[in-house]
Amino acid sequence: MLVPAGRAHHDPDASRPSRIPLLLAVARRGIPDLLESTIVPAILFFVLVSTLNAAVAMAAVLAWAYGALLRRIAAEPRNTAARTTVVATGWTK
Q: Can you give the pLDDT at residue 60?
């Protein structure tokens, strides 16, 4: 059974990290992935569907996604999530 620690020996500020550095660390790690996986493909699709047609836009976004996947595999060969994606899509090494 879990029992809360006594208030006399517990300093709440000592165990809780500051929020600003924590948010900055999350943003530093998350923004590049967000750009690569969502924002750039959305802008690419919008521009190409506006200037050309939907088929070209879908092909370009698909090429972007496969290029990003290949870049991740090349950068981190032990990345199991990327390997799982490769296996799920039917590619082999």
A: 96
Half-sphere exposure of 19 (CA within 13 A, CB side): 0
CA atoms within 13 A on the CB side of 79: 13
DSSP letters of the chain? ---PPPGGG--HHHHS--HHHHHHHHHHHHHHHHIIIIIHHHHHHHHHHHHS-HHHHHHHHHHHHHHHHHHHHHH-TT-HHHHHHHHHHT---
What's the alpha-carbon Rg for the chain, to the nearest Å? 22
pTM of the full structure: 0.61
pLDDT digit string (tens) for 44-90?
999 999 999 999 999 999 999 888 888 877 777 676 666 666 666 76
Kindly list the distances between the CA atom of residue 19 and the CA atoms of 23, 28, 84, in Å, as whole numbers in the listed order: 6, 14, 34
